[in-house]
Amino acid sequence: MSEKVKCLIIGSGPAGYTAAIYAARANLSPVMYEGLQPGGQLTITTEIDNFPGYPEGITGPEMMNQLKAQAQRFDTDVRFGIITKVDLSKRPFKVIADNTHEIEAEVVIIATGATAKYLGLDSEEKFKGLGVSACATCDGFFYKGRDVAVVGGGDTAAEEATYLAGICNKVYMIVRRDELRASKAMQKRVAENPKIEILWNHNPVEVLGDSSGVTGVKLFNNKTNEEKSIDIHGFFIAIGHTPNSDIFADYLETDEIGYIKTKTGSSKTNIPGVFACGDVQDSVYRQAVTAAGTGCMAAIDAERFLSENE
Fold this sequence. Notes:
Elements: E1 3-10, H1 13-25, E2 31-33, E3 47-48, E4 58-59, H2 60-73, E5 77-79, E6 83-87, E7 93-97, E8 101-110, E9 114-116, H3 122-126, E10 132-133, H4 136-139, E11 147-151, H5 155-165, E12 170-174, H6 184-191, E13 196-199, E14 202-210, E15 213-221, E16 226-231, E17 234-237, E18 241-243, E19 274-276, H7 288-309
Parallel strand pairs: 1-2, 1-8, 2-5, 8-19, 10-17, 11-12, 11-17, 12-13
Antiparallel strand pairs: 3-4, 6-7, 7-8, 9-18, 14-15, 15-16
Helix pairs in contact: 1-2, 1-7, 5-6
């Protein structure tokens, strides 16, 4: 026999936990499944200095623990586990948790986030949070006045390199081809910035470092077959994100990459009663504070939907 819940939140992180806080305070008795990475991408972020209200900064895991505790204070039923199957064809929506437990939900809030793409190097994994980052706006400040590198040739890489050039001493842009995929406007901004040096036809083969963190990166020139190393302290991966939306693909409208489409100015998807918030629907900002904001929107949208449809 399936469990009946009023409000099901799929995924945690700033969006999911904020949605839970607002939903719980609106007496929606939310049930949350945290997913494989409770707290989301911020749990692999060391210091967070750009979230309002933390003048001394806070670590990602600490912030997520605090948000979780706040959600639980208002009686959110937080469960460790994953949603493995969904049927969003009609209300109540049917989902399967951990391949076995069936739930019927009056409304569903999706906060499954996105996963940053990495290069797959062992050394990259070793120095994650110690100089290796997938978010320049999150972590760039820690490398103020130092030399850093950005990997990628698209708009995201060009934007991150430009952002870092405003903070850092020098920015190497490591591009595996002999051209950028970025828009013409972004290419122009990169080309005209004296702090950015593009290393064409290069692939990173090893992130170098010691107990203090990243100290450099070894590169392979795929035109000349030569190797060289450059000295850096920050190594930023900007080769894209994958939104965690596959399980909903049969029901929800997404863009070509997989980000769930929401109606402008709301968290509403193409299915009434299903709402999306955070990085699973935001390909532009991808910040903790904006994710939290859309989590708030999703809970308010869900509460209004229920009051209009009960």
